[in-house]
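Entry:
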Amino acid sequence: MQALSLLPQGFTARPMTLDDAEIVAQLFAISAKAQNFQFNISPEELREEWKSPKFVLEESSLGVFNASGELVGEVEIWDDHEIPVHPWVDLTMHPDYFGSGVDEALLTWGLELSRRVIDKCPEHALISAYAGTMQEYEPKIRLLESFGMTIKRYFFRMRIDMVDVPPTPVLPDGFHIQSYRHPDQLIDVIKADDDGFRDHFGYVEQPIEKKIEQWEHWINTDPVFDQTLWYLVIDDATGQIAGTCLCRNEAWGEPEVAYVNKISVRREYRQKGIALAMLRHAFHEFYKRGRHSVTLHVDANSITGAVRLYERAGMFVEQRSVTYEKVLRDGEEIARV
C-alpha cells in the first residue's frame, strides 16, 4: 500500500496480534490522557474486542513502532457490519508523534483499506469512512481535516453524580419494569432494541442472525455482565417489551462509575415517560449499590430529544466528541442520518 511508503525513516509497521494487547492498551491510555478523555481499556477487554465476529485483527490493523521498538501509533478498520457502508477508521496516536508523518501514513493506510467494503455493499449505496476525535483535540482535528474529512456528527458523554437518593421512577399505568432473564429473553430484547434504534443515526438493517451472534459475543465476553442491570419495561396488555435500559455496574476503565450502555423505547411507546422512568430506576439501583456516579453516551442531535431527557434526569454534558467523514464512493445514503 502507498501508506507504508510514506513512513518516515526509522519507523517500522506491522499488523497487531493478540499478544500486543498490553502495549495497545497503554497507547490508548496515553492518547486518552492527552485528550482529557475518560477512557481506559484493559488488555483482557481489548483481546475480547479483537475477537469480535467478522473482525480479523491481522487483516484490519496496523501499528507503527519507533527505532526503540515503542508503539507510537495504531489504526484499526472496523467494517464488520453486514452492510458496511460506513467503515470506522479507529486511529490512535501517541501525542508526541502527531506531525511526524506517522499519523499521515496510518490514516492513509486506514482510508485505503476501508475501500475493501465497496464490493460488499449495494451498487447504489453511498460509502464513506468515519473517524472520531474529542471535539477540542486540535492535533487530530488538523490531521482529519487535512485529508478532506468533514464533520458528520457530534456526540456527548453525559454524567450524573448523585448526592441524594434519586427521584422515584413513575411508569404510566399499564406498564411494569423487570430485569432481563438470560438467555430466554435475548431475542426479544434484540428485537426491541432494534426497533428502538431504527430511526437513530447510523442505523442499517441487518439479519437477526447477525445481531444474535454479535450480542452473544458481547454478553459472553463482558466480565461484569449482570442480567439484573438490564431493565425491560413491559406492556401489561400485550406482554411486549416497550423499552430497554441495558446497564453495567462499571464503565469501561472506571470501575467506580456505573454506565448506561443502551436505552431505547419503541416508537409506538414514546412520549409516555418510559425512558425517564427506566433511567431513574437504574439510578435508584446504582445508588443502592454504592454507585453514585453514572455515565452514558448520546448522539447530540438525537431526533428523540435524548439529551433533553437526560438533562431532566439530572445529567450534564461531561465530554464532547465529533465524528468526521470521508466519502469513498458517491451514492444513496442507506444508513439513518
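The domain at 2-153+322-329 is CATH 3.40.630.30 (Aminopeptidase).
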